[in-house]
Design a protein that fits this description.
Elements (H helix, E strand, L loop, with lengths): L1 H12 L16 H11 L7 H14 L3 E5 L2 H11 L7 E5 L5 H9 L2 E5 L10 H11 E3 L5 E3 L5 E6 L10 H11 L2 E5 L7 E2 L2 E2 L6 E5 L12 E5 L2 H11 L23 H12 L1 H19 L5 E2 L6 E2 L5 E4 L3 H13 L5 E2 L14 E2 L3 H9 E4 L7
Parallel strand pairs: 2-3, 2-6, 3-16, 6-7, 7-10
Antiparallel strand pairs: 1-11, 4-5, 5-6, 8-9, 8-13, 10-11, 12-14, 14-17, 15-17
The structure holds pyridoxal-5'-phosphate (PLP).
The site of pyridoxal-5'-phosphate (PLP) has 14 residues, from helix 4 and helix 5.
Length: 381
């Protein structure tokens, strides 16, 4: 199996060189727009590409307002800030995620509650969330969701669309309505992924995208905050800059600003990448179907898009039969120059989140021991 898989990957990428997990492609106007930015001298916080890029993402996702930021983590941080998460508040999220989800919480002084995932698409499990809340939370007279044992307020649910596969949003939205919680979608991995026809990141109060170098499209580093309400979008734009009141020469700032604004240079790259996104996604889908066919009928289960969703197949993944099979595959492929990777270690194993509240995490542990990501860069663009 290992050798056949290695030949398949070498076939897909037509190379005998090292094959990374996810590399960007710049086959459109990237160079031209970057050159234009440099000759205009507007490389920094002012320039037309930031607005253009925001409008492109707005149109593409259908969100009310998109605000460009320096990276995905800062988009999440801003979302939490605007959702009124304060120090000491609790937020329900996944233990199986990239650390950025929890870092954003950490820097708010808020704490995660790790709830289990489901084992088909590896996103936050609505049943596990509902059960945990029923057993551990109460609504007080002001309608606030209180964690009974600590007396702390639970403010939000922050699911992550793992590898680009949408979580079950309708179910999570009902839970949020019942318990008076904000839904914040970590959509960093899911640009181009839809839940029942709606773009991921646009159903919650806020959604955060990432344009890091390994994501579906890249701006070098960058992120985008998707706001469901126009007024949140305006506020987001205000605080992600310096919260300065418009004036030709006076400097007056009416609240603390983050200065998380994306530079024009990065946005230029983003505009060129958005022109290529359909080609990129088509190539990724084609690669996914080759993996799916390869693993069909084997004891390795290819992770397919949910029936209720359309996935971008950001990172292709398989579930190995057990940890020994996983380790053997990682060892063999990586030693042969074909990069594969286990999933992130669960968040509660990291020192900064070791004492965080958590529910039963048996599905997360099951996935942690078996998931492997396969090379997924777009090709032939
Ligand atoms: C990539 C990613 C982020 C954001 O990453 P940045 O590097 O800050 O852009 C956040 N959450 C998840 C799950 C991610 O994969």
């Amino acid at each position: 199996m290992h050798n056949k898989l290695i030949s398949l990957v070498r076939d897909i990428y037509s190379t005998n060189e090292f094959i990374p997990l996810h590399a960007p492609t710049f086959k459109g106007n990237e160079q031209a727009y970057l050159a234009e930015t440099i000759s205009s001298t507007f490389v920094s916080s002012v320039g037309k590409f930031v607005d253009d890029f925001e409008h492109k993402i707005q149109a593409y996702t259908g969100t009310a307002r998109a605000v460009a930021t320096v990276n995905g983590t800062s988009a999440l941080h801003t979302a939490l800030h605007l959702a009124d998460i304060k120090a000491g508040d609790l937020v329900i999220t996944q233990a199986l995620t990239f650390v950025a989800t929890c870092n954003a919480l950490y820097h708010m002084g808020a704490e995660p509650i790790f709830i289990d995932i489901e084992t088909t698409f590896f996103g936050l499990c609505p049943i596990a969330v509902a059960t945990w809340l029923d057993e551990n939370a109460q609504l007080n007279d002001d309608g606030q969701c209180i964690h009974v044992a600590s007396g702390k307020q639970i403010k939000a649910v922050m699911p992550m669309h793992t590898f680009g596969h949408s979580v079950q949003l309708d179910e999570l939205i009902s839970i949020c309505e019942k318990w008076n919680l904000s839904l914040i979608e970590d959509a960093a991995e899911s640009l181009g992924s839809y839940y029942k026809g709606k773009h991921t990141g646009t159903l919650g109060k806020f959604g955060a995208l990432s344009f890091n170098g390994n994501k579906v499209i890249t701006t070098g580093g960058g992120g985008m905050l998707l706001c469901r309400a126009e007024k949140d979008g305006l506020h987001a734009k205000h605080v992600t800059t310096t919260a300065k009141q418009p004036h030709p020469y006076e400097f007056y700032h009416d609240e603390p600003g983050f200065n998380y604004r994306m530079p024009n240079l990065n946005a230029a790259l983003g505009c060129a990448q958005m022109e290529q996104i359909e080609k990129i996604l088509a190539s990724k889908r084609q690669i996914a179907s080759q993996y799916e066919e390869f693993f069909a009928g084997s004891e390795y289960q290819f992770v397919k898009e949910p029936e209720y969703a359309h996935s971008n197949y950001w990172l292709n993944a398989i579930l190995c039969p057990d940890i020994n099979a996983r380790n053997a595959l990682l060892e063999k492929t990586n030693s042969q120059g074909v990069m594969t990777r286990p999933v992130w270690q669960l968040m509660h194993r990291l020192p900064m989140f070791a004492s965080s509240l958590r529910g039963d995490l048996k599905n997360s542990e099951f996935a942690e021991a078996r998931l492997v990501n396969l090379p997924s860069s777009p090709t032939g663009i």
